């Protein structure tokens, strides 16, 4: 993408800073001409991470004009900047769910920068951006930077006691992940317990968001060698996702019956990757257990089959364990799955 940059020529005494590292810039984006970089490597990283999505959107926001200094212009720029925040947030979340942590950094940084422009420094509205940036650096192993970002997020929350359950849930989840990565397991369990509480208050006990906390807590107990607790937590996660996917599948099949030419997958690709990792981890654990329950293995395998089908990846369905075709009765959640063989999945996509 080096063709998208030009050497920076500025009047003497005028300096610009790099979009990624805030060091002195020597290059300029040739398309928008309002974004600057210290070198071609940072330009390329930013282009892949977020800039190609927002390049032209930055022009009116970063170009001073008589209109932009008037009240109507300021309001318009504020709305455009809020739109940028949402775009950057969605891109960062998508890349994180796909495990592309390095690519998520520019989007998370842009989200944070725009959030500061709109809401000011040290405000609770910056917390989602702090956590996105922390999650990206967590995946890259930059734990010192993660701790710093988490401190800033925690301080913003402490100053805003009125902030909602969703913010607290996300903060505790990220804190739990940090303590898990640093080996402080008791602290991690404390934060995951709080994560589950706040998530259940915001989304409900049966929510897939809430069950994410159970899965992360189970990972801690895996490290502590507590298979019985792990099995119990995994069962909760597996049943929640199976129920959710079964409902999505039923709705998708109904849509196919109304519109047989539909080719769009019914499940977001990034989320499919993330949920697939969760379910495969549970399946691997249950298959290795000496006290494994065939119904639990079948439940998880069937969930993976539904996930692949909903994501449009039918080729992976045939490679799942055949136990996914058994009839399963879920007495705890009162959900009954009857006669849904994998071959029926394939027939819908022919």
TrEMBL record:
Keywords: Metal-binding, Zinc, Zinc-finger. InterPro entries: TPR-like_helical_dom_sf, Zinc_finger_MYND_domain, Znf_MYND. It holds the Pfam family zf-MYND. GO terms for molecular function: zinc ion binding. It comes from the Eukaryota. Residues 18-55 form the MYND-type domain. This is Zinc finger, MYND-type containing 12. It comes from Hippocampus comes (Tiger tail seahorse). The lineage of its organism: Eukaryota, Metazoa, Chordata, Craniata, Vertebrata.
């Amino acid at each position: 993408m080096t063709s998208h940059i030009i050497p920076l020529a500025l009047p003497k005494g005028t300096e610009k800073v790099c979009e990624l590292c805030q060091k002195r810039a020597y290059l300029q984006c040739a398309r928008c001409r309002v974004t600057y970089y210290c070198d071609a490597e940072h330009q390329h990283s930013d282009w892949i991470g977020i800039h190609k999505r927002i390049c032209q959107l930055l022009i009116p926001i970063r170009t001073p004009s008589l209109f932009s200094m008037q009240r109507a212009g300021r309001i318009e720029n504020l709305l455009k900047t809020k739109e940028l925040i949402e775009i950057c947030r969605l891109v960062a979340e998508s890349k994180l769910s796909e495990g592309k942590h390095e690519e998520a950094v520019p989007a998370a940084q842009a989200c944070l920068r725009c959030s500061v422009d709109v809401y000011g420094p040290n405000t609770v509205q910056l917390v989602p951006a702090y956590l996105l940036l922390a999650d990206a650096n967590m995946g890259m192993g930059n734990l010192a930077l993660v701790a710093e970002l988490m401190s800033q997020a925690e301080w913003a929350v402490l100053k805003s006691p009125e902030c909602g359950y969703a913010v607290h849930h996300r903060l505790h989840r990220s804190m739990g992940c940090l303590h898990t990565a640093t080996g402080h397991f008791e602290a991690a369990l404390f934060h995951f317990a709080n994560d589950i509480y706040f998530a259940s208050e915001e989304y409900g006990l049966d929510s897939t968001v809430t069950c994410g906390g159970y899965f992360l807590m189970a990972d801690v107990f895996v490290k502590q060698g507590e298979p019985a607790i792990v099995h119990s937590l995994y069962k909760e996660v597996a049943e929640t996702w199976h129920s959710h996917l079964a409902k999505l599948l039923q709705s998708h099949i109904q849509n196919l019956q109304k519109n047989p030419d539909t080719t769009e997958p019914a499940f977001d690709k990034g989320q499919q990757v993330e949920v697939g990792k969760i379910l495969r981890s549970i399946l691997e654990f249950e298959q290795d257990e000496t006290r494994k329950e065939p119904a639990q293995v079948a439940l998880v395998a069937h969930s993976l089959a539904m996930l692949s089908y909903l994501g449009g990846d039918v080729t992976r369905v045939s490679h799942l364990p055949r136990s996914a075709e058994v009839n399963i009765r879920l007495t705890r959640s009162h959900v009954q799955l009857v006669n849904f063989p994998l071959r029926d999945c394939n027939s819908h996509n022919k």
